[in-house]
Design a protein that fits this description.
The chain has 324 residues and is α/β, with parallel strands linked by helices. Helix content is 35%, strand content 27%. The chain is built from nine helices and 14 strands. Strand 13 and strand 14 form a beta hairpin.
């Protein structure tokens, strides 16, 4: 199999985790770039990266780079996604992949013209457990899917300068943790929801603190989502069918699920994958997407979720300052 040259743009905390995954799966990292050369050099020393750039634009022009991993704050994702595909690079980008659907649509259009792969670092799409659960559901084991329930609650310490609470940095629960919940729901629904009902409570800084979201698709399947940045909730998802239901705890990087069959109350535990290897699965999937040209479903999920997040904010009337 072809060996791909990966470049990391934005050597922050999550990039360090990706750096470990890349060295385990891909053996090495070809390049790292940052707006400050010092952070890039420090990262390069730790992970034995071949090339170091203190200018991100310069790095994106390197003809030997195959894949760019973007791990900057999501306010900068669109800028670098656009530049990367314009320079002929495949891109693996952290969630939320863009701040709004218009940005993503533009990037996807260019990527398709250039036959490039765009993928999001949404662990749900890459964990082996989820692929197995889809197989079980498609077999009819729990009947027809009717309802998905999913919640995510973080209790963030208030700091107005922190990106979680900053409108200027696209803060708020929806793009930080809500992207996981909506991605979970979309993964198990047979089609994208076309009806969305939602309400929101804002924080002092003007970002969305907590919200409730109800969605329904054209097959009458529903999803109910609860989000909050200021109260802890278990990360729990339930997929309910006519013949049983699946419960998944700590769902963003889950490696275990329990199926309950409603006819007799029998339970079955499904254990697959390794939570600690979540980013390893992402690296392998991204390379497979390019090698086998099989990324269409993943990209459709990402597009659907991004459009749903934009629709939710549209209903709230919530616009980030840089979107005006």
């Amino acid at each position: 199999m072809k060996k791909y040259n990966w470049a990391i743009l934005g050597p922050g905390n999550i990039a360090r985790e990706m750096g470990k995954a890349l060295t385990e799966v891909n053996v090495e990292i070809y390049a790292v770039g940052s707006r400050g050369i010092e952070s890039a050099e420090k990262f390069a020393e730790e992970f034995k990266v071949k090339k170091v750039y203190g200018d991100c634009d310069e790095m994106l022009k390197d003809p030997d780079i195959d894949i760019v991993y973007i791990s900057t704050p999501h306010t900068f994702h669109y800028e670098y996604l656009l530049k990367a595909v314009q320079n002929g690079k495949h891109v693996f980008c952290e969630k939320a992949i863009t701040v709004n659907a218009k940005q993503l649509d533009e990037v996807i259009s260019i990527a398709k013209e250039k036959n490039l792969v765009i993928a999001e670092g949404m662990t749900i799409y890459h964990m082996p457990l989820y692929k197995k659960l889809r197989e079980i559901i498609n077999s009819g084991a729990i009947g027809k899917i009717k309802m998905v329930q999913v919640n995510f609650g973080s209790c963030k310490e208030f700091d107005p300068s922190n990106r979680f609470f900053s409108k200027e940095l696209a803060g708020g629960a929806l793009l930080d943790i809500g992207v996981y919940a909506v991605s979970f729901a979309r993964f198990f629904l047979e089609s994208k929801p076309n009806t969305v009902l939602t309400t929101v409570k804002y924080f002092d800084t003007g970002v969305d603190e907590q919200s409730g979201i109800i969605m329904k698709n054209d097959r009458e399947q529903m999803a109910v989502i609860a989000l909050t940045l200021t109260a802890k909730q278990p990360k729990r998802g339930v997929v309910a069918g006519t013949e049983g239901y699946i419960e998944i705890g700590n769902y963003p990087r889950a490696d275990k699920a329990t199926i309950t069959y409603t006819s007799d109350g029998r339970t079955e535990e499904i254990v697959l994958g390794d939570t600690s290897k979540a980013l390893n699965y992402e690296v392998q999937d991204m390379q497979d997407y390019i090698t086998f040209k099989n990324h269409q479903e993943q990209l459709q999920f990402t597009s659907d979720v991004t459009h749903l997040l934009s629709e939710i904010r549209n209903q709230w009337g919530f616009v980030y300052p840089f979107e005006k």
